[in-house]
Amino acid sequence: MQSKHILITGGAGFIGSHVVRLFVTKYPDYQIVNLDKLTYAGNLENLKDIQDFPNYIFEKGDIVDADFITALFQKYNFDGVIHLAAESHVDRSITDPMSFVMTNVIGTVNLLNAARDAWKASGFEGKRFYHVSTDEVYGELHDPEEFFLETTSYDPRSPYSASKASSDHFVRAYHNTYKLPVVVSNCSNNYGPNHFPEKLIPLMINNIIHNFPLPVYGKGENVRDWLFVKDHARAIDVIYHNGVNGETYNIGGFNEWKNIDLVHLLCKIMDEKLGRPEGTSVKLITYVQDRAGHDLRYAIDANKLMKELGWEPSLQFEEGLASTVDWYLANTNWLKNVTSGDYLNYYESMYTNR
Ligand code: NAD
Ligand code: DAU
Protein backbone atom coordinates (compact mmCIF):
# COMPACT_ATOMS: atom_id res chain seq x y z
CA MET A 1 0.00 0.00 0.00
CA GLN A 2 1.56 3.28 -1.12
CA SER A 3 1.54 6.06 1.47
CA LYS A 4 1.26 8.89 -1.05
CA HIS A 5 0.15 9.16 -4.65
CA ILE A 6 1.92 11.97 -6.47
CA LEU A 7 1.36 13.26 -9.99
CA ILE A 8 4.50 14.69 -11.59
CA THR A 9 3.83 16.47 -14.89
CA GLY A 10 6.55 16.88 -17.52
CA GLY A 11 8.53 14.02 -15.99
CA ALA A 12 10.03 12.97 -19.33
CA GLY A 13 11.69 16.36 -19.80
CA PHE A 14 15.02 17.66 -18.54
CA ILE A 15 14.26 18.71 -14.94
CA GLY A 16 11.18 16.51 -14.60
CA SER A 17 13.16 13.33 -15.27
CA HIS A 18 15.58 14.18 -12.43
CA VAL A 19 12.65 14.92 -10.10
CA VAL A 20 10.88 11.67 -11.03
CA ARG A 21 14.05 9.63 -10.46
CA LEU A 22 14.70 11.28 -7.09
CA PHE A 23 11.15 10.65 -5.84
CA VAL A 24 10.88 7.09 -7.20
CA THR A 25 14.19 6.01 -5.67
CA LYS A 26 14.06 8.01 -2.42
CA TYR A 27 10.43 7.25 -1.55
CA PRO A 28 9.70 3.60 -2.43
CA ASP A 29 6.41 3.85 -0.52
CA TYR A 30 5.12 6.67 -2.78
CA GLN A 31 3.38 5.92 -6.06
CA ILE A 32 4.71 8.31 -8.70
CA VAL A 33 2.63 8.93 -11.82
CA ASN A 34 4.55 10.71 -14.56
CA LEU A 35 2.22 12.51 -16.98
CA ASP A 36 3.88 13.74 -20.14
CA LYS A 37 2.75 14.52 -23.68
CA LEU A 38 6.18 13.54 -25.04
CA THR A 39 6.67 16.66 -27.13
CA TYR A 40 10.03 17.13 -28.87
CA ALA A 41 11.44 17.87 -25.37
CA GLY A 42 10.06 14.78 -23.65
CA ASN A 43 12.06 11.58 -23.87
CA LEU A 44 11.36 8.34 -21.99
CA GLU A 45 14.98 7.33 -22.57
CA ASN A 46 15.73 9.82 -19.76
CA LEU A 47 14.03 7.41 -17.33
CA LYS A 48 15.17 4.03 -18.68
CA ASP A 49 16.88 3.12 -15.41
CA ILE A 50 13.73 3.43 -13.30
CA GLN A 51 10.97 2.56 -15.79
CA ASP A 52 10.37 -0.89 -14.21
CA PHE A 53 10.29 0.26 -10.58
CA PRO A 54 7.04 -0.93 -8.97
CA ASN A 55 6.18 2.54 -7.64
CA TYR A 56 6.51 4.24 -11.08
CA ILE A 57 3.74 4.65 -13.66
CA PHE A 58 3.90 6.55 -16.95
CA GLU A 59 0.79 8.17 -18.47
CA LYS A 60 1.03 9.78 -21.89
CA GLY A 61 -1.31 12.76 -22.17
CA ASP A 62 -1.77 16.45 -22.74
CA ILE A 63 -2.46 18.85 -19.84
CA VAL A 64 -4.41 21.03 -22.29
CA ASP A 65 -7.03 18.24 -22.53
CA ALA A 66 -9.29 19.03 -19.54
CA ASP A 67 -11.37 15.82 -19.82
CA PHE A 68 -8.26 13.68 -19.82
CA ILE A 69 -6.92 15.48 -16.74
CA THR A 70 -10.22 15.10 -14.86
CA ALA A 71 -10.27 11.39 -15.68
CA LEU A 72 -6.67 11.02 -14.51
CA PHE A 73 -7.56 12.52 -11.12
CA GLN A 74 -10.48 10.07 -10.91
CA LYS A 75 -8.26 7.12 -11.83
CA TYR A 76 -5.60 7.89 -9.23
CA ASN A 77 -6.37 9.30 -5.86
CA PHE A 78 -3.57 11.89 -5.92
CA ASP A 79 -2.37 13.48 -2.68
CA GLY A 80 -0.09 15.89 -4.48
CA VAL A 81 0.89 17.39 -7.80
CA ILE A 82 4.36 18.56 -8.80
CA HIS A 83 3.77 20.48 -11.99
CA LEU A 84 6.71 20.87 -14.37
CA ALA A 85 5.13 20.28 -17.80
CA ALA A 86 5.67 23.35 -19.93
CA GLU A 87 6.94 24.75 -23.16
CA SER A 88 10.30 25.90 -21.82
CA HIS A 89 12.43 27.49 -24.54
CA VAL A 90 12.45 31.29 -24.85
CA ASP A 91 13.45 31.32 -28.57
CA ARG A 92 10.55 29.04 -29.46
CA SER A 93 8.17 31.32 -27.54
CA ILE A 94 9.24 34.19 -29.79
CA THR A 95 8.27 32.30 -32.96
CA ASP A 96 5.20 30.48 -31.55
CA PRO A 97 3.72 32.21 -28.47
CA MET A 98 0.34 30.43 -28.68
CA SER A 99 1.68 26.98 -27.83
CA PHE A 100 3.12 28.58 -24.66
CA VAL A 101 -0.28 30.05 -23.78
CA MET A 102 -1.94 26.69 -24.35
CA THR A 103 0.39 24.48 -22.33
CA ASN A 104 1.73 26.89 -19.72
CA VAL A 105 -1.46 28.82 -18.98
CA ILE A 106 -4.45 26.69 -20.06
CA GLY A 107 -2.70 23.44 -19.08
CA THR A 108 -1.91 24.79 -15.61
CA VAL A 109 -5.48 26.01 -15.07
CA ASN A 110 -6.80 22.57 -16.14
CA LEU A 111 -4.61 20.95 -13.48
CA LEU A 112 -5.70 23.48 -10.85
CA ASN A 113 -9.39 22.84 -11.62
CA ALA A 114 -8.92 19.08 -11.46
CA ALA A 115 -7.01 19.27 -8.15
CA ARG A 116 -9.57 21.66 -6.62
CA ASP A 117 -12.53 19.51 -7.69
CA ALA A 118 -10.94 16.23 -6.61
CA TRP A 119 -9.73 17.52 -3.24
CA LYS A 120 -12.38 19.94 -2.00
CA ALA A 121 -14.56 17.21 -0.40
CA SER A 122 -11.67 16.38 1.95
CA GLY A 123 -11.21 20.05 2.84
CA PHE A 124 -7.78 19.80 1.10
CA GLU A 125 -6.39 17.94 4.15
CA GLY A 126 -2.90 16.58 3.37
CA LYS A 127 -3.02 17.81 -0.23
CA ARG A 128 -0.47 19.94 -2.06
CA PHE A 129 -0.17 21.55 -5.51
CA TYR A 130 3.43 22.50 -6.28
CA HIS A 131 4.07 24.75 -9.28
CA VAL A 132 7.64 24.73 -10.62
CA SER A 133 8.39 28.11 -12.14
CA THR A 134 11.19 30.33 -13.33
CA ASP A 135 13.14 33.41 -12.28
CA GLU A 136 12.35 34.94 -15.69
CA VAL A 137 8.99 36.14 -14.33
CA TYR A 138 10.90 38.87 -12.45
CA GLY A 139 12.23 40.46 -15.65
CA GLU A 140 15.87 41.54 -16.00
CA LEU A 141 18.41 43.12 -13.66
CA HIS A 142 20.74 46.03 -14.50
CA ASP A 143 22.24 46.93 -11.11
CA PRO A 144 25.01 44.36 -10.44
CA GLU A 145 24.25 44.51 -6.69
CA GLU A 146 20.59 43.59 -7.15
CA PHE A 147 19.05 40.11 -6.85
CA PHE A 148 15.58 38.68 -7.41
CA LEU A 149 13.77 38.19 -4.10
CA GLU A 150 10.44 36.43 -3.55
CA THR A 151 8.97 39.93 -3.12
CA THR A 152 10.36 41.31 -6.41
CA SER A 153 7.55 42.57 -8.65
CA TYR A 154 6.73 40.54 -11.71
CA ASP A 155 7.92 42.00 -15.02
CA PRO A 156 7.89 39.20 -17.62
CA ARG A 157 9.46 40.30 -20.90
CA SER A 158 9.24 37.31 -23.27
CA PRO A 159 6.20 35.29 -24.33
CA TYR A 160 7.69 32.37 -22.35
CA SER A 161 8.07 34.35 -19.12
CA ALA A 162 4.67 36.01 -19.62
CA SER A 163 3.07 32.57 -19.83
CA LYS A 164 4.91 31.35 -16.72
CA ALA A 165 4.01 34.55 -14.82
CA SER A 166 0.39 34.05 -15.78
CA SER A 167 0.42 30.45 -14.53
CA ASP A 168 2.07 31.57 -11.25
CA HIS A 169 -0.73 34.12 -10.80
CA PHE A 170 -3.40 31.46 -11.40
CA VAL A 171 -1.78 29.13 -8.85
CA ARG A 172 -1.77 31.88 -6.20
CA ALA A 173 -5.31 32.95 -7.16
CA TYR A 174 -6.55 29.37 -6.55
CA HIS A 175 -4.91 29.47 -3.12
CA ASN A 176 -6.60 32.74 -2.27
CA THR A 177 -10.00 32.00 -3.82
CA TYR A 178 -10.51 28.25 -3.25
CA LYS A 179 -7.99 27.67 -0.43
CA LEU A 180 -6.11 25.17 -2.61
CA PRO A 181 -2.86 24.34 -0.76
CA VAL A 182 -0.11 25.52 -3.11
CA VAL A 183 3.60 26.24 -3.16
CA VAL A 184 5.52 27.95 -5.97
CA SER A 185 9.25 27.98 -6.64
CA ASN A 186 11.11 30.21 -9.09
CA CYS A 187 14.44 28.82 -10.18
CA SER A 188 17.41 30.10 -12.18
CA ASN A 189 19.02 28.39 -15.21
CA ASN A 190 19.58 24.68 -14.79
CA TYR A 191 22.28 22.59 -16.44
CA GLY A 192 23.22 18.91 -16.37
CA PRO A 193 22.52 15.55 -18.04
CA ASN A 194 19.47 15.18 -20.32
CA HIS A 195 19.30 18.91 -21.13
CA PHE A 196 17.83 19.33 -24.60
CA PRO A 197 20.49 20.70 -26.99
CA GLU A 198 18.56 23.80 -28.01
CA LYS A 199 19.61 25.40 -24.69
CA LEU A 200 22.96 27.17 -24.36
CA ILE A 201 25.16 24.61 -22.57
CA PRO A 202 24.13 21.37 -24.33
CA LEU A 203 23.94 23.19 -27.68
CA MET A 204 27.53 24.36 -27.29
CA ILE A 205 28.68 20.88 -26.20
CA ASN A 206 26.97 19.26 -29.20
CA ASN A 207 28.37 21.83 -31.63
CA ILE A 208 31.89 21.52 -30.26
CA ILE A 209 31.73 17.72 -30.67
CA HIS A 210 30.79 18.23 -34.35
CA ASN A 211 33.02 21.26 -35.00
CA PHE A 212 29.96 23.38 -35.78
CA PRO A 213 29.89 27.17 -35.16
CA LEU A 214 29.07 28.23 -31.57
CA PRO A 215 26.32 30.87 -31.91
CA VAL A 216 26.68 33.53 -29.21
CA TYR A 217 23.76 35.98 -29.19
CA GLY A 218 24.64 39.67 -29.38
CA LYS A 219 27.92 40.39 -27.62
CA GLY A 220 27.66 37.49 -25.17
CA GLU A 221 27.37 39.99 -22.29
CA ASN A 222 24.11 38.58 -20.86
CA VAL A 223 24.38 37.00 -17.42
CA ARG A 224 22.68 33.85 -16.14
CA ASP A 225 22.82 32.17 -12.71
CA TRP A 226 23.49 28.43 -13.22
CA LEU A 227 22.36 25.59 -10.96
CA PHE A 228 23.03 21.85 -11.35
CA VAL A 229 19.74 20.12 -12.18
CA LYS A 230 20.06 17.56 -9.35
CA ASP A 231 20.33 20.43 -6.86
CA HIS A 232 17.09 21.83 -8.28
CA ALA A 233 15.46 18.39 -7.88
CA ARG A 234 16.68 18.28 -4.24
CA ALA A 235 15.19 21.73 -3.64
CA ILE A 236 11.85 20.58 -5.09
CA ASP A 237 11.90 17.59 -2.72
CA VAL A 238 12.55 19.86 0.28
CA ILE A 239 9.91 22.41 -0.74
CA TYR A 240 7.30 19.76 -1.58
CA HIS A 241 7.67 18.21 1.87
CA ASN A 242 8.48 21.18 4.09
CA GLY A 243 7.42 24.35 2.27
CA VAL A 244 4.64 26.44 3.78
CA ASN A 245 1.32 26.60 1.93
CA GLY A 246 0.88 29.79 -0.04
CA GLU A 247 4.61 30.57 0.04
CA THR A 248 7.09 31.14 -2.78
CA TYR A 249 10.71 29.97 -2.70
CA ASN A 250 13.44 31.26 -5.01
CA ILE A 251 16.03 28.66 -6.04
CA GLY A 252 19.44 29.59 -7.44
CA GLY A 253 23.11 28.75 -7.38
CA PHE A 254 24.69 32.13 -6.50
CA ASN A 255 26.65 31.32 -9.64
CA GLU A 256 26.53 34.08 -12.24
CA TRP A 257 28.27 33.79 -15.57
CA LYS A 258 28.43 36.03 -18.61
CA ASN A 259 27.48 33.86 -21.59
CA ILE A 260 30.77 34.51 -23.38
CA ASP A 261 32.85 33.56 -20.31
CA LEU A 262 30.83 30.39 -19.88
CA VAL A 263 31.32 29.45 -23.54
CA HIS A 264 35.09 30.02 -23.16
CA LEU A 265 35.15 27.75 -20.09
CA LEU A 266 33.21 25.06 -21.95
CA CYS A 267 35.61 25.29 -24.90
CA LYS A 268 38.55 24.75 -22.53
CA ILE A 269 36.92 21.75 -20.83
CA MET A 270 35.92 20.23 -24.17
CA ASP A 271 39.40 20.66 -25.70
CA GLU A 272 40.86 18.80 -22.70
CA LYS A 273 38.25 16.01 -22.77
CA LEU A 274 38.47 15.55 -26.55
CA GLY A 275 42.27 15.67 -26.56
CA ARG A 276 42.28 18.67 -28.90
CA PRO A 277 44.98 21.38 -28.63
CA GLU A 278 43.91 24.20 -26.28
CA GLY A 279 42.27 27.00 -28.26
CA THR A 280 40.71 24.72 -30.91
CA SER A 281 37.05 25.12 -29.86
CA VAL A 282 37.24 28.85 -29.12
CA LYS A 283 37.81 29.40 -32.85
CA LEU A 284 34.25 28.10 -33.44
CA ILE A 285 32.67 31.02 -31.54
CA THR A 286 30.43 33.03 -33.88
CA TYR A 287 28.57 36.14 -32.77
CA VAL A 288 25.04 36.06 -34.20
CA GLN A 289 22.03 38.39 -34.16
CA ASP A 290 20.74 38.92 -30.63
CA ARG A 291 17.59 37.28 -29.26
CA ALA A 292 14.61 39.70 -29.53
CA GLY A 293 14.04 41.36 -26.14
CA HIS A 294 17.02 39.50 -24.66
CA ASP A 295 17.02 39.87 -20.84
CA LEU A 296 20.36 41.22 -19.62
CA ARG A 297 20.88 39.55 -16.27
CA TYR A 298 19.14 37.12 -13.94
CA ALA A 299 20.39 36.54 -10.39
CA ILE A 300 18.50 34.78 -7.63
CA ASP A 301 18.70 35.39 -3.91
CA ALA A 302 18.01 31.89 -2.52
CA ASN A 303 18.46 32.84 1.14
CA LYS A 304 14.86 32.20 2.14
CA LEU A 305 15.04 28.58 0.97
CA MET A 306 18.48 28.11 2.54
CA LYS A 307 17.58 29.63 5.91
CA GLU A 308 14.00 28.40 6.31
CA LEU A 309 14.25 24.94 4.76
CA GLY A 310 17.97 24.17 5.05
CA TRP A 311 18.65 23.56 1.32
CA GLU A 312 21.92 24.51 -0.32
CA PRO A 313 23.57 23.77 -3.68
CA SER A 314 25.87 20.75 -3.42
CA LEU A 315 28.13 21.15 -6.42
CA GLN A 316 30.78 23.64 -7.54
CA PHE A 317 30.07 24.88 -11.07
CA GLU A 318 33.36 23.77 -12.68
CA GLU A 319 32.87 20.28 -11.24
CA GLY A 320 29.23 20.16 -12.36
CA LEU A 321 30.07 21.41 -15.84
CA ALA A 322 32.90 18.87 -16.26
CA SER A 323 30.62 16.02 -15.17
CA THR A 324 27.92 17.30 -17.55
CA VAL A 325 30.41 17.24 -20.44
CA ASP A 326 31.38 13.67 -19.42
CA TRP A 327 27.70 12.67 -19.52
CA TYR A 328 27.23 14.04 -23.05
CA LEU A 329 30.43 12.39 -24.29
CA ALA A 330 29.29 9.07 -22.82
CA ASN A 331 25.78 9.46 -24.28
CA THR A 332 26.36 10.45 -27.87
CA ASN A 333 23.48 8.16 -28.93
CA TRP A 334 21.07 10.14 -26.76
CA LEU A 335 22.35 13.32 -28.42
CA LYS A 336 22.08 11.78 -31.90
CA ASN A 337 18.50 10.61 -31.28
CA VAL A 338 17.22 13.95 -30.00
CA THR A 339 19.00 15.99 -32.65
CA SER A 340 17.43 14.23 -35.64
CA GLY A 341 14.04 14.95 -37.28
CA ASP A 342 12.23 17.97 -35.90
CA TYR A 343 15.31 19.37 -34.22
CA LEU A 344 17.13 19.83 -37.52
CA ASN A 345 14.20 21.78 -38.99
CA TYR A 346 14.08 23.96 -35.88
CA TYR A 347 17.81 24.58 -35.88
CA GLU A 348 17.85 25.60 -39.53
CA SER A 349 14.82 27.89 -39.17
CA MET A 350 16.42 29.67 -36.19
CA TYR A 351 19.06 31.06 -38.49
CA THR A 352 17.09 31.51 -41.71
CA ASN A 353 14.07 33.30 -40.16
CA ARG A 354 15.91 35.90 -38.08
P1 NAD B 1 11.64 20.61 -20.88
O1 NAD B 1 11.23 21.38 -22.08
O2 NAD B 1 12.93 19.88 -20.91
O3 NAD B 1 10.51 19.55 -20.50
C1 NAD B 1 9.15 19.86 -20.52
C2 NAD B 1 8.38 18.55 -20.47
O4 NAD B 1 6.97 18.88 -20.48
C3 NAD B 1 8.63 17.63 -21.66
O5 NAD B 1 8.81 16.30 -21.23
C4 NAD B 1 7.36 17.77 -22.50
O6 NAD B 1 7.06 16.59 -23.24
C5 NAD B 1 6.32 18.04 -21.41
N1 NAD B 1 5.15 18.75 -21.95
C6 NAD B 1 5.17 19.87 -22.72
N2 NAD B 1 3.92 20.23 -23.04
C7 NAD B 1 3.09 19.33 -22.44
C8 NAD B 1 1.69 19.19 -22.37
N3 NAD B 1 0.87 20.03 -23.03
N4 NAD B 1 1.16 18.18 -21.65
C9 NAD B 1 1.98 17.31 -20.99
N5 NAD B 1 3.33 17.39 -21.04
C10 NAD B 1 3.88 18.40 -21.75
O7 NAD B 1 11.59 21.64 -19.69
P2 NAD B 1 12.54 21.77 -18.41
O8 NAD B 1 13.70 22.61 -18.77
O9 NAD B 1 12.75 20.43 -17.82
O10 NAD B 1 11.60 22.65 -17.45
C11 NAD B 1 10.65 22.01 -16.60
C12 NAD B 1 9.90 23.09 -15.84
O11 NAD B 1 10.81 23.85 -15.04
C13 NAD B 1 9.17 24.10 -16.72
O12 NAD B 1 7.94 24.41 -16.10
C14 NAD B 1 10.10 25.31 -16.74
O13 NAD B 1 9.35 26.48 -16.93
C15 NAD B 1 10.69 25.23 -15.36
N6 NAD B 1 12.05 25.80 -15.23
C16 NAD B 1 13.06 25.43 -16.08
C17 NAD B 1 14.34 25.95 -15.89
C18 NAD B 1 15.50 25.55 -16.78
O14 NAD B 1 16.61 26.11 -16.63
N7 NAD B 1 15.35 24.61 -17.69
C19 NAD B 1 14.59 26.84 -14.83
C20 NAD B 1 13.53 27.21 -14.00
C21 NAD B 1 12.27 26.68 -14.20
O1 DAU C 1 16.24 31.38 -15.95
C1 DAU C 1 15.51 30.19 -16.05
C2 DAU C 1 15.23 29.87 -17.50
O2 DAU C 1 16.46 29.47 -18.08
C3 DAU C 1 14.17 28.80 -17.68
O3 DAU C 1 12.95 29.25 -17.18
C4 DAU C 1 14.02 28.43 -19.17
O4 DAU C 1 13.10 27.37 -19.31
C5 DAU C 1 15.38 28.01 -19.68
O5 DAU C 1 15.30 27.72 -21.07
C6 DAU C 1 16.42 29.08 -19.43
O6 DAU C 1 16.17 30.26 -20.25
P1 DAU C 1 17.36 31.07 -20.98
O7 DAU C 1 16.79 31.78 -22.12
O8 DAU C 1 18.17 31.82 -19.99
O9 DAU C 1 18.26 29.81 -21.45
P2 DAU C 1 19.01 29.50 -22.84
O10 DAU C 1 19.84 28.27 -22.61
O11 DAU C 1 18.09 29.49 -24.00
O12 DAU C 1 20.00 30.74 -22.99
C7 DAU C 1 20.95 31.05 -21.99
C8 DAU C 1 21.66 32.32 -22.42
O13 DAU C 1 22.48 32.01 -23.58
C9 DAU C 1 20.73 33.44 -22.86
O14 DAU C 1 21.30 34.67 -22.48
C10 DAU C 1 20.71 33.32 -24.40
C11 DAU C 1 22.09 32.82 -24.71
N1 DAU C 1 22.22 31.93 -25.90
C12 DAU C 1 21.37 30.88 -25.99
C13 DAU C 1 21.44 30.02 -27.06
C14 DAU C 1 20.49 28.85 -27.20
C15 DAU C 1 23.20 32.17 -26.84
O15 DAU C 1 23.99 33.12 -26.75
N2 DAU C 1 23.29 31.30 -27.91
C16 DAU C 1 22.45 30.24 -28.06
O16 DAU C 1 22.56 29.50 -29.07
Ordered list of secondary-structure elements with their pairings:
Layout: E1 4-9, H1 14-26, E2 30-36, E3 56-60, H2 66-75, E4 80-83, H3 90-95, H4 97-119, E5 128-134, H5 159-178, E6 182-187, E7 189-191, H6 200-209, E8 214-217, E9 223-228, H7 229-242, E10 248-251, E11 256-258, H8 259-274, E12 285-288, H9 303-309, H10 317-330, H11 332-338, H12 342-352
Parallel strand pairs: 1-2, 1-4, 2-3, 4-5, 5-6, 6-10, 7-9, 8-12
Antiparallel strand pairs: 9-11
Helix pairs in contact: 1-7, 2-4, 4-5, 6-8, 8-10
The structure holds nicotinamide-adenine-dinucleotide and 2'deoxy-thymidine-5'-diphospho-alpha-D-glucose.
Family: Belongs to the NAD(P)-dependent epimerase/dehydratase family. dTDP-glucose dehydratase subfamily.
Enzyme class: lyase
EC number: 4.2.1.46
Describe the protein in words.
- One of its GO terms (biological process) is nucleotide-sugar metabolic process.
- The chain is an alpha/beta fold.
- The protein has a domain at 5-194 and 227-253 and 296-316 and 346-351: NAD(P)-binding Rossmann-like Domain (Rossmann fold), CATH 3.40.50.
- Helix content is 43%, strand content 17%.
- It has a 7-stranded parallel sheet, with helices on both faces.
- Strand 1 (4-9), helix 1 and strand 2 (30-36) form a beta-alpha-beta unit.
- Helix 1 (14-26) packs across helix 7 (229-242) and helix 4 (97-119) packs parallel to helix 5 (159-178).
- It starts with a strand and ends with a helix.
